[in-house]
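STRUCTURE REQUEST FORM
Protein name: Band 7 domain-containing protein
Source organism: Flagellimonas marinaquae
Requested output: structure tokens
Priority: standard
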Amino acid sequence: MDKLPKIALPALATVIFLIIIISKSAVTIGSGEAGVLYKTFGGGVVTDAPPLGEGFHLVAPWNRVYIYEVRQQEKTEKMNVLSSNGLDIKLEASVWFQPKYDELGKLHQEKSEQYIDRVLLPAIRSAARSVVGRYTPEQLYSSKRDAIQQEIFEETQKIVEDQYIQLNEVLVRDVTLPPTIKDAIERKLKQEQESLEYEFRLVTAEKEAEKVRIEAQGKADANRILSASLTDKILQDKGIDATIKLSESPNTKVIVVGSGDDGLPLILGNN
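Status: completed
Returned output:
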């Protein structure tokens, strides 16, 4: 009984030591994450091997693991930029991105966990200022939104492509102009729209008038052709046909007396 405590204490100490070692050595990496291993006595950040993937890992207790999210992320940035004529424009843009998985070690070594603030956001600010500076407020407000968005993406891509960041998309969410400029642009657009509507009405009226002229000309041509074709002989033949049909009717009494100036019989009775 006197020897039991002497054996139990070292065993308990060993168990506690093992628990501490395991707790410091165990690393669990969650879904959509990856780990960068830092070897304290082995050259620092591991850049020549893939990062640690999802799941449970055991590492030496004197080493460290830095965990990064490697799924697509979104960052929204609001900034003030200048248009081509020097007006202050407020721009809100969202960037979709993720770190390049196979180069995560280099990203950590050169940019650290602060790579979003140190690299990505300055890049999109620089690209936005460069692109917006090529356009007028009117273009920013109306017709060039998609083009500006694409150009900001391309400019940002040039900056971050060798910074171990994968750029997926840039979305321009809002462009805010000074109120006086916005009102002036809206008035101009309204006037242009009214002018287009007026021109459309003029074109429509002109087409309708042309249609009426064509129809009238067609009727005049038809009457002229008909008049030219109605000779005395044709009129006389038609008169004879009409007289014959009238005489054949059982409800009509016809008295023929001589002939008219055109040689047709005169019809005196119709009971």
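Reviewer notes: The chain has four domains: 17-69, 73-177, 181-229, 232-267. The chain has seven helices and ten strands.
Form closed.
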